């Protein structure tokens, strides 16, 4: 029987997703486990985690060996536990005996450097890695408005808009319930604040792009891409995320709302509608193929595309550990498929590895 191990930093995370997936695993002859990477014994490689009991439909404590295939759903922060678990997951990825559903992507800067050399380069906002507070101040002086993003950020956390006005510097960031704003009377105050920020983590800088609707709300097109059991990339679904009025980001963590893609595309003028739709699909069809030319195999991607007032499209974010809320909200009929797709692809990987093993033996 195939065993699928779901890795998470906290066994309470994504409870609904993991449980709904595990409920459906039995019909694919799969046993589901979930565990925290730091609970692997490095000597014996035995794991203290949980096994899903299909009869009682509950997770039970269990000691078990490394599962056949690992599904990495770890979202790392800057804390010690995150760094410890990331090091363990990186170690697992080097082991030839261990197979991952997907191997994930590097940080946003490495992604930008790779994609900026491809046919998708025109869709990428100009991005630079911040090396000093003075660099931010100088670029903001020149561009007037810039965006700062953590190099390893996710879910819209830690994104700042810095704006140079005639009298002062203004910094904004979106929180779940409100937008936090700070003003600095001079460059030295701004640089002191930036010094403290950059000491905590690495950031990227991009020009601010007004990717907003007519109500001054930031919005983007969130798409979920996954590999099918035939190992072909599929656009599973799209949805529109709309942030708050005068907001910076359209992430759900900042209080954004979700609407369906088909209704949104009909708001585009008829003469441009088909072209925009085709251009979005063209980006989504090419992106995973291009990424896999640079990086190890992937299973799924969340892709955020923004649209400016002139209908130009911009790739805002690419995430190899996407959520499912947008697609589930806008296309609820896909719920069964979303819970089963990791199981289908895990079976495909197992069959492939068995064929490879048989071929090796016959050779």
Automatic annotation (TrEMBL):
Signal peptide: none annotated. GO terms for molecular function: ATP binding. This is Endospore coat-associated protein YheC. InterPro entries: ATP_grasp_subdomain_1, YheC/D. It comes from the Bacteria.
């Amino acid at each position: 029987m195939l065993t699928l191990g779901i890795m998470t930093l906290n066994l309470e995370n994504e409870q609904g997703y993991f449980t709904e997936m595990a409920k459906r695993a039995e019909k694919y002859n799969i046993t589901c486990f979930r565990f925290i990477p730091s609970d692997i014994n490095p000597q014996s490689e035995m794991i203290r985690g949980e096994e899903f009991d299909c009869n009682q439909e509950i997770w039970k404590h269990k000691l078990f060996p490394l599962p056949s295939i690992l599904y990495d759903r770890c979202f790392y922060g800057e804390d010690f536990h995150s760094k410890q678990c990331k090091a363990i997951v990186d170690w697992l990825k080097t082991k030839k005996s261990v197979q991952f559903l997907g191997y994930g992507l590097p940080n946003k800067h490495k992604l930008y450097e790779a994609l900026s050399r491809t046919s998708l380069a025109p869709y990428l906002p100009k991005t630079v890695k911040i090396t000093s507070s003075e660099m931010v101040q100088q670029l903001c002086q020149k561009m007037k408005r810039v965006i700062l993003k953590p190099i390893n950020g996710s879910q819209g956390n830690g994104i700042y808009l810095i704006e140079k006005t005639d009298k002062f510097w203004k910094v904004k960031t979106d929180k779940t319930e409100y937008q936090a704003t700070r003003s600095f009377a001079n460059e030295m105050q701004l640089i002191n604040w930036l010094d403290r920020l950059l000491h905590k983590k690495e950031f990227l800088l991009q020009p601010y792009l007004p990717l907003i609707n007519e109500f001054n709300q930031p919005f983007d097109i969130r798409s979920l891409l996954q590999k099918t059991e035939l190992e072909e990339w599929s656009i599973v679904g799209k949805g529109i995320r709309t942030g708050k009025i005068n907001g910076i980001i359209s992430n759900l963590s900042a209080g954004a709302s979700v609407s369906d893609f088909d209704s949104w595309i009909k708001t585009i003028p008829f003469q441009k509608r088909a072209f925009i739709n085709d251009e979005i699909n063209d980006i989504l069809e090419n992106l995973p193929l291009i990424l896999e030319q640079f990086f190890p195999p992937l299973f799924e991607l969340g892709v955020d595309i923004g649209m400016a007032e002139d209908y130009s499209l911009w790739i805002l974010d690419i995430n190899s550990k996407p959520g499912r809320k947008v697609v589930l909200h806008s296309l609820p009929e896909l719920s069964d498929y979303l819970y089963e797709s990791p199981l289908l692809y895990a079976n495909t990987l197992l069959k492939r590895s068995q064929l490879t093993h048989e071929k090796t033996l016959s050779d």
